[in-house]
Design a protein that fits this description.
Elements lengths: L4 E4 L4 H12 L5 E4 L7 H11 L3 H4 L19 H10 L8 E4 L2 E4 L18 E2 L5 E3 L7
Parallel strand pairs: 1-2
Antiparallel strand pairs: 1-3, 3-4, 5-6
Amino acid sequence: MTDITIYHNPACGTSRNTLAMIRNSGVEPNVILYLETPPTRDQLVDLIKAMGMSVRDLLRKKGTPYDELGLDNPAWTDEELIDFMWMKPILMNRPIVVTPLGTKLCRPSELVLDILPGAQKAPFAKEDGEIVINAEGKRV
């Protein structure tokens, strides 16, 4: 069993690129399709704490009911915002990656390189062609 987990949305290019970089390090991670199998509320709270970010920073606006729900209103407490993300996981920004070196929201996708225990095994370019790892195995 792997010690790397990704909360993944296969419809998201950033998430696909992040997953590909994890695999390029020679690891097959535990892939959680969080829209189908969302984290529990307690797991969500733990992820936010582990990332050291604010609850609002984890909220995804684009392609979600963020505006409809008025989640930009400062009257919403962190606890209430967590409840919204727990009930509507599409509100959770992604991908989130958990490794022995840390937990990180990987936007942009190459942030995953900061917490991967192993080096990249081959050159790597994102889906859009942007080179992230060159032929010498160095981060660009």
